[in-house]
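Researcher: Please generate the 3D structure of the following complex. Treat every line as part of one assembly.
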Amino acid sequence: DVKVTQSSRYLVKRTGEKVFLECVQDMDHENMFWYRQDPGLGLRLIYFSYDVKMKEKGDIPEGYSVSREKKERFSLILESASTNQTSMYLCASSPGRTEKNIQYFGAGTRLSVL
Amino acid sequence: AQSVAQPEDQVNVAEGNPLTVKCTYSVSGNPYLFWYVQYPNRGLQFLLKYITGDNLVKGSYGFEAEFNKSQTSFHLKKPSALVSDSALYFCAVSGFSGGYNKLIFGAGTRLAVHP
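Model: Done. Output below.
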């Protein structure tokens, strides 16, 4: 089974802190994604990566950056956390370059910024 | 632009009754459609997908979905609901945007199955 592991289930940070969210997948997938989930808005794509050291902006990249130094690991960085970044963050991975492929999700990180 | 609409925030069903969770989509070209489920405090799990072929797609946990091209719909169904089916359900459409594979999600529908 594909396993996507997010390093923290819950995080509480203060405004202005730099926050790192880590994601690791064990199936050698090319593609990795970061979403945020908010009630009534579904999932919105923040950033994605289709290869090591490659990254592409999603629909809501402002206030975030990412890093993919190894194929299995994709990190989301909040440079200076703000209260409006309080949310559930979901990481996903998928194989190949076709839109027919399933994305596999981690359990999520619930981030609270105080 | 590709989009997905889930018109119901919540669906309430009695255990043992059939359930339907609605989804409509807007996409240029061939639609690739997905349903995911999210149980409390968990990530999303894949249920089923439509790529091509039969309009009725069968998936995990007894769920199925019917693709209707003329109505641009992909409704999720189950003949007999279980209390354990209570969860948040997301419809998604996949396609290339900017040269890459992306999923566009609906806002989600919360399914509540009552004993």
